[in-house]
Amino acid sequence: MSAARNALKFVWLEVTGLCNEFCDHCYADSSPKGTHGTLTVQDWLRVIDQLADMGTLDIQFIGGEPTLYPHLPALIRHSHGSGLSVEVFSNMTHIRDELWETFKECGVKLATSYYSDTAEEHDSVTRLRGSHRRTRANVERALGLDIPLRGGVVVVREGQRVREAARDLAVLGVGMVGGDKSRAFGRASKGAAPTISDLCGHCAHEKCAIGPNGDVWPCVLGRFLTIGNVLSAPLAEIWGGGQMKKVCADITAVHGEGAQSCTPPQFLPMCGPCGPCVPSVGHCDPRGADGAVTLGVPA
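The line above is the sequence of Radical SAM protein; the predicted structure tokens follow.
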């Protein structure tokens, strides 16, 4: 598909591989041993400028834990000033006062994962003592500041209190609560090499992800498929370029042409089938609905 017919609408910006949690199911394999990568602040600012020039609508800062990236406020302000809609996907355990101010000033939306209504179970998933208390308190703070927030409950173990967790978020006032299961990427793969068949097939359709070392991936889960690097070429050349065409052809050979009907892929945390999508999309592929995790919690 040509770049003209496949506009780049949504991009994940993975600004760091550092995370204060160490979840077994982390698709990015981030941890306290992670780093901020090789991209400098100026590199990220240049990427944001290129996205704005390409007409991108939405970006989501991710990690690792993006709030641990010291220059996140500057990147958010630059993105907002460039006309991009910004969401930050955070575990919400480490939000500095400066970040709260930036969120308010720039109309940032937040998204977070929540694993249980009990501190013991939630903390056992994150492997960070006190994470449940801090996440829950910052959810309340965000809502108190009228910052849009959506939550997602990812099923990572049998018997997990997922419905109770979703209800807890709803009681706090979170209007959008989605559900998903862990996916076999990163640490959740338990050492197995990822394959194209593990993906949904919607990769590189109106979206991509950029990692902290500059690699451009067709989606956050397809990081084993590199379509370019922003340190070597501008995004306008990478998007729709030769390497991207090759990767898309490989994906199509496995999933078929019809797979590119949902943006973003419905299986990502916070975007279950028929669940809330990023503002510029607003639809999901109903063929995936049978695999949805239904929490039964009113929005």
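Note on the example: The chain has one domain: 10-255. DSSP finds eight helices and nine strands in the chain.
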